[in-house]
Specification:
Elements lengths: L2 E5 L5 E5 L4 E6 L27 E2 L20 E7 L5 E8 L2 H6 L4 E9 L3 E9 L10 E2 L2 E3 L6 E4 L5 E4 L5 E4 L4 E3 L4 E5 L5 E6 L4 E6 L6 E5 L1 H7 L11 E6 L1
Antiparallel strand pairs: 1-2, 2-3, 4-9, 5-6, 6-7, 7-8, 10-19, 11-14, 11-16, 12-13, 12-15, 15-18, 16-17, 18-19
The structure holds 6-O-phosphono-beta-D-tagatofuranose.
The site of 6-O-phosphono-beta-D-tagatofuranose has 11 residues, from β18 and β19.
């Protein structure tokens, strides 16, 4: 899997695989790793990499295609990059339809991902329909944020937001907590979520601000103890070390 680095004058750095256009690591300007990468992540073609920022496209979750679609389990090609002495570094990756995608999704498309690194990380996704018929798709940045201790982690900004609980067959409820803490297996999508959320990694003495435009919803997932033990590409204690807050 070809892995390339991006650096910024602030000291921030990032590594990204062309496989899945998958950002595997992002270190902030103080050199601290922001993303979780499972020590047991599989680097096998056809498998998703467990950690970093998997690109969910064109399907979220289960459906006619393999879970989360083919974006994260196929090669994207680098189309442009610019590393300025001052100013942001950026890289573009693209993938288009081919005979493989046509087997599961009969549409002509070009998907592009633009990664921009300065003291923040900005990821832009664009999907063009190159066919003659309209198509629908789903996409998400399935980000694994590293935290020191899940039991001292909270998501701020979801109070009052309606969510579908995937653990209750999509039953809807309203979030009542201004600081949402993970205390069990959690798998829910907050609908029309705020453009800014904050992950407070209290034990890690840091906060991560997530801002989004265009992606309407936010998914919050943690497999908890049983899920962590059941997933072969996670260690049993890994659930304590990450929270997925996904713009989608
Ligand atoms: O993050 C939401 C979710 O859809 C969960 O249901 C869980 O399946 C997670 O994605 C991980 O999916 P994966 O296919 O990467 O194991």
């Amino acid at each position: 899997f070809s892995l390339t680095e991006m650096k910024h004058a602030s000291g921030a750095s990032l590594s990204v695989y062309e496989y899945g256009a998958h950002i595997a690591s992002w270190k902030d300007s103080t050199g601290n790793e922001v993303l979780f990468m499972s020590p047991r992540a599989l680097f096998q073609v056809g498998k998703a990499i467990r950690g970093g920022i998997p690109i969910v496209f064109p399907q979220f979750g289960k459906g006619p295609m393999p879970a989360h679609g083919f974006g994260r389990t196929s090669n994207w090609s680098r189309i442009r990059e610019s590393f300025l002495d001052s100013g942001p570094s950026s890289r573009g990756l693209r993938r288009s339809n081919n005979e493989e995608t046509a087997k599961v999704w009969p549409h002509q498309f070009v998907a592009e991902l633009e990664i921009v690194l300065d003291t923040a990380l900005t990821i832009r996704m664009r999907v063009n329909n190159r066919g003659t018929e309209p198509f629908e798709f789903q996409s998400a940045l399935h980000t694994y944020f590293a935290v020191k201790d899940i039991s001292q982690t909270e998501v701020v900004g979801l109070k009052g937001i309606k969510y579908k609980d995937f653990l209750k067959q999509g039953a809807e409820a309203i979030e009542e907590n201004a600081e949402f803490k993970i205390t069990q297996l959690t798998d829910r999508v907050y609908l029309d979520s705020p453009s800014t959320l904050v992950v407070n990694d209290i034990a890690g003495k840091r906060s991560i601000e997530i801002s989004k435009t265009g992606f309407r919803d936010s998914v919050v997932w943690n497999p908890w103890k049983d899920g962590s033990a059941a997933l072969t590409d996670l260690e049993s204690a890994s659930y304590k070390k990450f929270i997925c807050v996904e713009s989608g």
